[in-house]
Specification:
This protein is an all-alpha fold. The chain has helices at 5-11, 13-32, 38-61, 78-98, 107-124, 130-148, 155-186, 191-198, 205-221, 231-237, 240-247, 249-264, 282-302, 307-327, 335-365, 378-381, 383-397, 403-415, 421-451, 466-484, 487-500, and strands at residues 67-68, 75-76. The protein is 73% helix and 1% strand.
């Protein structure tokens, strides 16, 4: 059978546009702008990257681009296009927050790596082939490893990148071994054929080992305990826009891919979390990861003195909230609603986190440090940025009417919605609700510094350029709008999941 390259090009239209933008950035910066002042290079290269993200975003939302190539190398439908659009929005915000960064002379390389990371994340959600899944995941990871070390002014950046790389390499080995076991059991790389080959076999030792290894590999990508040790150093050592992308886009793509592997690549009986009735499977494994992530992430965040490390442990806790709904995917009757709540949660969390890092970066460029005490009295000298912090941190805490509240409510409701799920999942939801109260405490600690405590000494005001201000308005406005009208995202997600047959 011949290869229809026009069909492949149509399915990969968004990725092709972003790759073209990455190559254009390199050409413009290294071939034309090399001798220009650094400020001009950042503005022009960033502008090309923005155009690439917008072009890819429009391609993904224009509709009608669906299809599946042989072997599942590409599996594009309305759901994948919707998730890719969310990913490109987060990359676009990251680019906007980078316009005035100025932390490296390698401007073209920086923006091209951001775009290549975006391409890797887009391919992650566009494939049902385990080989393509692994290759795209490594493209994303390698780009983020390099970007983490890009700030030459930060002495901790290289150490953080090295730790991120070493942990990531070990996790990739676990994931690859797990995927290879699935291939060995079925003789296929296509997730749908793998599920068909495993159906009816029961929980064999080889299958259990494969599932455990896959969960370990993805546990690193989403920073779930005990695979989270890279996150605090990476968030603190990476350039602030890069930390925003690691905390947002990387998590969206990883959770979507984990859900696809578990739901499409494994038979339904493999994930039954109804352990009160003698069940188990990957649903139980995800429930255990959820509990330890919720407890450790929230408790450790209380002790943090730096904003980025607090956001890192907050990310660990939020991975726990998402895993609550992921555990419910093992109940067939709750699967569609649980996956919709997972995607709504990670998209709104990603948008909120990008906004939070953008606000922190703007304050840092005004001369403030990364410590909580450096934010004291910020509302008096930077009222606009302080209001943005209020929106983002209250959303992270799950306070209505912001998107974070709707996301948590949807996750908890979906975890209790399936037949037989109530007793099996109730204890997990109770733990998550209790940990939400702990999370509220440390988010209010930050806001107390901003709005209640007076400044210590003369502190400069935060600064946000035009591009940065546009990004902050988009992020904070999106958090408010999706909190007030969650159906704007939830309804398209439910319709796309139903159309995909998940």
């Amino acid at each position: 059978m011949g290869v229809d390259y026009l069909e492949l090009l149509r399915l990969l239209g968004g990725e092709v546009l972003v790759v073209a933008a990455a190559l254009a950035v390199l050409f413009v910066d290294l071939g034309i702008m090399r001798e220009q002042p650094a400020r001009n290079r950042w503005m022009i290269s960033g502008g090309v990257a923005v155009l690439g993200c917008i072009a890819g975003l429009f391609w993904c939302v224009q509709g009608g681009v669906e299809g599946r190539s042989p072997g599942g190398l590409l599996a594009v439908d309305g759901l994948t296009q919707l998730v890719k659009a969310a990913l490109l929005l987060m990359v676009l915000l990251t680019v906007l927050f980078s316009f005035h960064a100025g932390f490296t002379p390698h401007v073209g390389e920086y923006f091209s790596l951001l775009l290549l990371a975006a391409v890797g994340m887009m391919l992650m959600v566009s494939s049902e082939n385990v080989l393509m899944v692994f290759v795209s995941l490594e493209l994303t990871s390698l780009s983020l490893y390099i970007l983490t070390a890009f700030n030459e002014e930060n002495p901790h950046g290289l150490e953080a990148a090295l730790k991120y790389f070493l942990f990531g390499g070990v996790a990739a080995a676990f994931l690859l071994f797990g995927l290879s076991l699935l291939y060995g059991l079925t003789g296929s790389l296509d997730l749908r054929e793998i599920a068909a080959g495993l159906r009816g076999r029961g929980a064999t030792p080889a299958m259990s080992a494969a599932v455990a290894l896959v969960v370990v590999g993805f546990g690193f990508k989403v920073a779930a305990v005990p695979f989270h040790l890279w996150a605090p150093d990476a968030y603190e050592g990476a350039p602030t826009p890069v930390a925003a992308l690691v905390a947002s886009g990387s998590k969206v793509a990883s959770f979507f891919l984990l859900g696809r592997v578990l739901m499409t690549g494994l038979p339904p009986e493999a994930g039954d979390p109804g352990w009160l009735k003698g069940g188990g499977g990957w649903g139980l494994a995800l429930a255990v990861l959820a509990v330890v992530s919720l407890v450790l992430g929230n408790v450790a965040a209380i002790a943090q003195k730096r904003v980025k490390r607090l956001l890192a442990y907050s990310a660990v806790a939020h991975a726990g909230y998402v895993l609550v709904a992921m555990a419910a995917l093992g109940f067939p009757s709750a699967r569609a609603e649980a996956f919709a709540s997972v995607l709504f949660y990670v998209v709104t969390y990603g948008l909120t986190t990008v906004g939070a890092f953008g606000l922190v970066g703007a304050m840092e460029r005004g001369g403030a440090g990364d410590r909580l005490t450096d934010l004291a009295g910020a509302c008096q000298r930077s009222p606009g940025l302080s209001m943005g912090l209020l929106i983002c941190f209250l959303s992270l805490a799950g306070i209505p009417p912001l998107a974070g509240f709707v996301g948590k409510f949807a996750v908890f409701a979906s975890a209790l919605a399936g037949d037989g799920a109530s007793l099996s999942m109730l204890w997990l939801v109770v733990v998550a609700v209790a940990m939400s109260a702990v999370g509220l405490y440390y988010y209010l600690k930050v806001l107390k510094q901003v709005f209640v405590l007076p400044a210590t000494g003369v502190m400069p005001a935060g600064r946000a350029g035009v591009a940065e201000a546009v990004g902050l308005w988009l992020a904070c406005g999106g958090v408010v709008v999706l909190g007030l009208w969650p159906a704007l995202l939830l309804d398209p997600l439910r319709q796309a999941i139903a159309a995909a047959g998940l």
